[in-house]
Amino acid sequence: MATTTSLAPNTPTGAGFQNPDFPNRNGPYDARVVIYGYTPSFALCILAIVLFAVAFAVHVLQLVRYKTWFFTPFALACFLETVGYIFRSLSSKNNPYHIIWFVVQYFMIVVAPVFISASIYVCINKLIAWAKSVGYVLDQWWLAPKVILWGFVTVDILTTIMQIAGAALIGSSQSNQKDPTTGNNILLAGLAIQSFSFTVFLVVLTLFRLALFKDPERKSSVKTKNWFIAALALASVLVYLRTLFRLAETAEGLFSYLSIHEVFFGTLEFTPVVIAVGIMAVWHPGQWLPQGPAVSSDHLPIAGVKTSSEKENPLADA
Fold first, then answer.
1. Of the four, 9, 77, 128, 264, which is 20 to 30 A from 310 by CA?
2. Which residues on neighbouring strands pair with residue 13, listed in sequence order?
3. 278 to 36, 123, 133, 272: CA distances (angstroms)
4. How far apart are CA 292 and CA 286, in angstroms?
5. Which residues 6+ apart lie within 8 Å of 257 measured at CB?
6. Percent of the chain scored above 70 by pLDDT?
7. pLDDT-derived band at 96, boundaries 50, 70, 90
8. What is the pLDDT of residues 218-265, one digit of tens each?
9. CA 202 – CA 46 distance, rounded (Å)
10. Looking at residue 194, what is its pLDDT?
């Protein structure tokens, strides 16, 4: 297919997009059009690489400092985001038609929030264990640690596999000039299920917070965790916002308005995730949560006794 030289750079078309500044090399791994729907911004890629690389270093240092190994997936998410934007930058500066670079950056950027979500689920489990240790009665089945951790994590894993498979099918279809509708539908189904699952999680998080409010006798105990619970809730909402954007983008179809304007990717994919990562770097769980098993409540800390991480936290008694 010939390059559309009459179009200005980064101008999308309904049948796909070709950038006159990047003539298609038609190599073995090149699609006939730019699958992104635009040529990715190199400036955005560099900004993302720098911010996520710094966040990765900060989270690794805090892992070592607080020994919060349960939060390792969060640091891994920062690493995946960094790698994803590196491959996206290759598309931006070298060859935006390259299918492998597209699939790799998509895989990394899509999988990273799953590790963020998994870390958030573990934090909620630890908060529930802490609440029980100071006397809260939380015997609802939907607040059972195993339900929260393994239930939501399982859904995230399955839906992420669906998204990656869908994206790979789209890339393959574009390369072979076949109809990519099937791949897009698989991608859409994965995002829809993931969005519903995270909606349920946010409801559970809200009900948990309301349950803490209902016991005025332990108000002082909850006060020591207020900042962390608020930070965790905000990070969760930001990840949820990013998921809803991906759902809306995919629901519109390939080369639709949301998918061919990178401003939406920058503001509703990159920005929410990088802010969430920053929030959890400042309000790191190592400063607020007792250390120990996240799923089992058999080894809960003694009520009224602060952990070493709580003693080190200058805001704990604020």
1. 77
2. 16
3. 27, 16, 29, 10
4. 11
5. none
6. 82
7. very high
8. 666 677 788 999 999 999 999 999 999 999 999 998 888 999 999 999
9. 32
10. 93
Q: What is the 3-state secondary structure (H, E, C) of the chain?
A: CCCCCCCCCCCCECCECCCCCCCCCCCCCECCCCCCCCCCCHHHHHHHHHHHHHHHHHHHHHHHHHCCHHHHHHHHHHHHHHHHHHHHHHHHHCCCCEHHHHHHHHHHHHHHHHHHHHHHHHHHHHHHHHHHHCCCCCCCHHHCHHHHHHHHHHHHHHHHHHHHHHHHHHHHHHHCCCCCHHHHHHHHHHHHHHHHHHHHHHHHHHHHHHHHHCCHHHHHHHHCCHHHHHHHHHHHHHHHHHHHHHHHHHHHCCCCCCCCCHHHHHHHHHHHHHHHHHHHHHCCHHHCCCCCCCCCCCCCCCCCCCCHHHHHCCCCCC
Residue positions counted in the chain? 318
Residue 30's DSSP bridge partners are 98
State the residue for tokens 């006794």: 305
Q: Can you give the pTM of this predicted structure?
A: 0.82
> What are 16's strand-pairing partners?
13
Evaluate whether 56 touches 74 at the Cβ level (below 8 Å).
no
Q: Which two tokens stand for residue 36?
A: 């992104």
Query: 153: how many CB neighbours lie within 10 A of its CB?
Result: 17
Cα–Cα nearest to 38, from 253, 269, 255, 252: 255
- For residues 116 and 214, the model is more confident at 116
Q: How far apart are CA 247 and CA 198, in angstroms?
A: 13
> What six digits make up the tokens of 62?
């805090």
pLDDT in tens, 108-139: 998 999 999 999 999 998 888 888 777 777 77
Beta bridge partners of 98: 30
Structure tokens at 274: 């990088």
Q: What is the pLDDT of residues 279-299, one digit of tens each?
A: 999 999 999 886 654 444 333
Q: How many whole angstroms separate alpha carbon 20 and alpha carbon 13?
A: 13
